[in-house]
Amino acid sequence: MGRLENKIAIITGGADGIGHAISDAMAREGAHVFVSDIDDAKGSAFVDTLRRAGLKADYVHCDVAEDKDIADLIARTVDQTGRFDILVNNAAIAIGGMPVHEMTDEQWHRLIAVNLTSVFRGCKYALPHMIRQRSGAIVNMASAQGHIGLDGWTAYAGAKGAVMAMTRQMAVEFGPHNVRVNSISPGTINTPMNEKVIADLGENVARAWVKMHPLGRIGNPEEVAEAAVYLASDAASFTTGVDLRVDGGLCVTPRFVPDLV
Ligand SMILES: NC(=O)c1ccc[n+]([C@@H]2O[C@H](COP(=O)([O-])OP(=O)(O)OC[C@H]3O[C@@H](n4cnc5c(N)ncnc54)[C@H](O)[C@@H]3O)[C@@H](O)[C@H]2O)c1
Description:
Layout: E1 8-11, H1 17-28, E2 32-37, H2 40-52, E3 57-61, H3 67-81, E4 86-89, H4 105-133, E5 136-141, H5 154-174, E6 179-186, H6 192-201, H7 203-212, H8 221-232, E7 243-246
Parallel strand pairs: 1-2, 1-4, 2-3, 4-5, 5-6, 6-7
The structure holds nicotinamide-adenine-dinucleotide (NAD).
């Protein structure tokens, strides 16, 4: 018996990276996963793989910057299954690596739309169903960047800090409806997002990342997925309003990293 048997889960940005690992882990724990993404080819191929393994999975196109896409994703899931237990607001983009005064308004608004407004919208459309059911678990993807300072990532960190603040507020507001809202703050994780950052900013960034984490390495998406499964499962039935750091100790190290400056 899996830890998420008979649960219905939606994961945004599920075609690759951390969202892929979460979708895979949740499906293996018995959930019916609705994998959503903008990369339809990758998302559909992934869902085919899950189905061939005998797992319950559907792919739904959803650009989290589009209000209608999120509304449709949640409506379709509920229409098809009659319920909705787990929402993982995972999709986000990395726009940064530049001083805040060099960031354009366009970059700022794009980042806020994909990384923050998406979380508001996901919750906005999920909560009425969860309140009606009197149960639900929302897991929002924050970041170590919402806890610590790092050159060049002010806007990204601002969005992630807001995700954590909203998580706490919603935990308070919807706890009486038995809806739990938690977040996860990964440290540096080996995903396509970071492959792109390294391609843009150079290999010295990758070396600095390793040094920054007391565990002496960056993390794997599966290590974040394990935290998401836990927070979504009944094992976390008395846990809400928490930010679970999966960061190899990054947020508690006072270590100075000369390669970064
Ligand atoms: N990788 C890290 O080191 C790290 C660290 C802290 C937090 N995070 C957070 O974890 C989450 C996942 O990051 P990742 O590293 O797996 O990213 P990734 O870029 O490797 O994968 C993101 C996935 O989201 C999809 N996506 C991008 N824009 C989208 C949109 N508008 N609508 C829907 N889907 C979209 C992509 O197609 C891709 O499948 C993000 O919230 C990120 O901020 C990542």
